[in-house]
Amino acid sequence: MLADGRCIDGLQEELAGSKLYLNVTRDDWSIEPWYISTNQIGIRSRFLECDRMRKVREDDYILFEVCHSFI
């Protein structure tokens, strides 16, 4: 990581060139594609040898975005 907080591992550039997205179900039940390159979702820590990656199929999970107002 650089002094200004930017990372130098190439992940930002790799994400910017990708078309990866998640379908997010919003609190009004509409579905919106959430592009990873613009929302910057990424794992920054290194995986251990015992960690396993799992490829997620389209129907495996539903990701919800719920907005709450706190008073």
TrEMBL record:
SUPFAM superfamilies assigned: Methuselah ectodomain (SSF63877)
Protein name per Swiss-Prot or TrEMBL: Uncharacterized protein
Topology within the bilayer: Multi-pass membrane protein
Main location group: membrane
Entry's family note: Belongs to the G-protein coupled receptor 2 family. Mth subfamily.
Species for this entry: Drosophila gunungcola (fruit fly)
Keywords, in A-Z order: Cell membrane, Disulfide bond, G-protein coupled receptor, Glycoprotein, Membrane, Receptor, Signal, Transducer, Transmembrane, Transmembrane helix
Domain of life according to the entry: Eukaryota
Gene Ontology molecular function terms on file: G protein-coupled receptor activity
Annotated localization: Cell membrane
This protein's GO CC annotations: plasma membrane
